[in-house]
Amino acid sequence: xxxxxxxxxxxxxxxxxxxxxxxxxxxxxxxxxxxxxxxxxxxxxxxxxxxxxxxxxxxxxxxxxxxxxxxxxxxxxxxxxxxxxxxxxxxxxxxxxxxxxxxxxxxxxxxxxxxxxxxxxxxxxxxxxxxxxxxxxxxxxxxxxxxxxxxxxxxxxxxxxxxxxxxxxxxxxxxxxxxxxxxxxxxxxxxxxxxxxxxxxxxxxxxxxxxxxxxxxxxxxxxxxxxxxxxxxxxxxxxxxxxxxxxxxxxxxxxxxxxxxxxxxxxxxxxxxxxxxxxxxxxxxxxxxxxxxxxxxxxxxxxxxxxxxxxxxxxxxxxxxxxxxxxxxxxxxxxxxxxxxxxxxxxxxxxxxxxxxxxxxxxxxxx
Length: 367
Fold this sequence. Notes:
This protein is of the alpha/beta class and 367 residues long. It has 3 domains: 3-111 and 322-350, 3-Layer(aba) Sandwich (Rossmann fold); 113-229, Rossmann fold (3-Layer(aba) Sandwich), CATH 3.40.50; 232-311, 3-Layer(aba) Sandwich (Rossmann fold). It contains 16 helices and 15 strands. The strands form 4 sheets. Strands 7-6-8-11-9-10 form a 6-stranded mixed β-sheet, with helices on both faces. Strand 12 (251-254), helix 12 (260-265) and strand 13 form a beta-alpha-beta unit. Helix 5 (63-72) packs parallel to helix 6 (85-94) and helix 8 (146-154) packs across helix 16. It is globular.
């Protein structure tokens, strides 16, 4: 390890004294710095964050909404993104050069985003275009790295969210005969199926073996990257069957990052915003089982005492990487900013930023 690498690592490791402070001390420090910095400081908080963090968020939402709100906030010098790495990257892509985007803990990553890297994608594109020629358009879920967004933008594709996936996939299939959908196979499969594409016309691309799983027939329309959300894949058909047997009157509401079988076995499926709005408008006393990240499920239970809400998986735990953003790391980040010593700054290179913005803007123009 070089001296520079050592210094960078040292700066990215939180001093132990923050963990030794009480919750009250940390909350007081955070409130004080927020008050002193005023509009120069902006804290977007993702829906999956813990309550101890979300209480300080200036806005809450999904990753794209928060990145857009960050871009609209021209007053903020510092954007402390309470989410995970790819979300902070998207915020950096959409904000100005003057603004700093900071992630309180650099270990807050996303296993799904990590399942597709640039090298793997280049190999996949070469092999798939050898098979199918110029008939493929790439799409990437916003839950992907800036490098993947850039690849997609450079090759004529767009980003998608779980809210607008149907619109973007419909557009893509008018542009080309086939789509390559990265990195979440489940969102891609569920979206394509809802648009009337049978499973028989879908194939999985395995980025580890660099092979297509199944025959490369001419009728294939959807090429699914073999990636998934580690949280949403833990909702399984055994949980659905148990709920159906024990409480047939309980409505099951899941996120489309769940497997196709789980989505088909549920009553409703939709994005995080869809789930929140369904619960917001639910009849008094209605019973719900929700299949999404546990911090959000617990918040929905707390905020809706007039409803009977449980998790689809009773043994579900919160997203572990999201949970890396906690009070100690938030206080540390804010105190460094207050002392003009920002750490954990997220900086996407200009080359990647340019092409990634193409993919993001193309999506925003379509919806």
